[in-house]
């Protein structure tokens, strides 16, 4: 096998999806399976579909295009707010987009009208995490301007918490979304079919039974891919945390001092290394580096080996306590979401679907 590589266990992804979809179903919540952490991998989307999702969430048009070309007909939700420079493409690739800007929605409307289409939108409301969304007091005026607009249909409201600033989903902020929806329904005489409140950070609140009744849609990435909720990163019941494993190969193994020799200046990334003297050390170099993944987000599966550092193409490990690993062996790593995202995006990491 060409190294480095990442294995993608589609059966585990399917099982993880099923566990989360079934739990959400109990509370009347539909799930969009979010594939963006895997570069919109077709096999991952298919595993999620087998596991019961009824929407796919993707943030990149190229990924959506690939999914469409692979005959995936599940409705696709564009997760990142649309950009003006590709409005036409957005309309033809995504069934639904998440929006917060009047000018963009107007452009979507114009483009879909000219094609005889109706583009569905979910309006994002910022409930405090300060990423995308209209501020609550701007929601009603915006919707009032949109209800007469042709070529678009407002199918719901959404919010995204925790992602940027860690604002935790609570009954109160979810209820605020419900209240805003009800105010709009009453004042604008429209029906909002979907209230899309959560990402993986809402799973704990869901399990505690504290999601207000009208919330009926979640967009779940990490929970499915890595089997974790994202407030405390606890393993989610009924899911595996190792659907993805990263492997790199030992290309040098030598007994060397733990302390560098000579006068010490900045390393390749401008940092001055602070290194503890541990005497002589069995040091290995693996053929993976910062150009391939987020080194801070990978954890060796062997508990008795340790990452010492990395440069663009090299990962240094301490093998002093595990002498059985030899030159040419591969070392396996678990990944966090950031490392998964980077690994799946790297052209240098071979993708192996199990
Ligand atoms: C990425 C993303 C999600 C999925 O988040 P997870 O924490 O991976 O579940 C949900 N909603 C939006 C808008 C996103 O961009």
Describe this entry's structure for a reader.
The protein is an alpha/beta fold. It has ten helices and 16 strands. Strands 1, 10, 11, 12, 13, 14, 15 and 16 form an eight-stranded mixed sheet that branches. The protein is elongated, with a radius of gyration of 23 Å. The structure holds pyridoxal-5'-phosphate. Pyridoxal-5'-phosphate is lined by residues 34, 36, 59, 79, 98, 160, 199-200, 219-223, 230. The site of pyridoxal-5'-phosphate has 14 residues, from strand 9 and helix 9.
Count of folded domains: 2
Bound molecules: pyridoxal-5'-phosphate
Question: What is the name of the CATH architecture of the largest domain?
Answer: Alpha-Beta Barrel
Residue fraction in strands: 15-25%
Question: Uncertain segments of ≥5 residues (pLDDT<50)?
Answer: none
User: H/E series, N to C?
Assistant: EHEHEHEHEHEHEHEHEHEEEEEEHE
Chain-averaged pLDDT: 94
CATH superfamily of the largest domain: Alanine racemase
* Share of helical residues: 25-40%
* CATH topology label of the largest domain: TIM Barrel
Radius of gyration: 23 Å
Distance between the termini: 13 Å
Which structural class do the helices and strands define? alpha/beta
- Say what oligomer this is: single chain
Overall geometry: elongated
Organism: Anaerosolibacter carboniphilus
Keywords: Isomerase, Pyridoxal phosphate
Domain Alanine racemase N-terminal: 8-224
Cofactor: pyridoxal 5'-phosphate
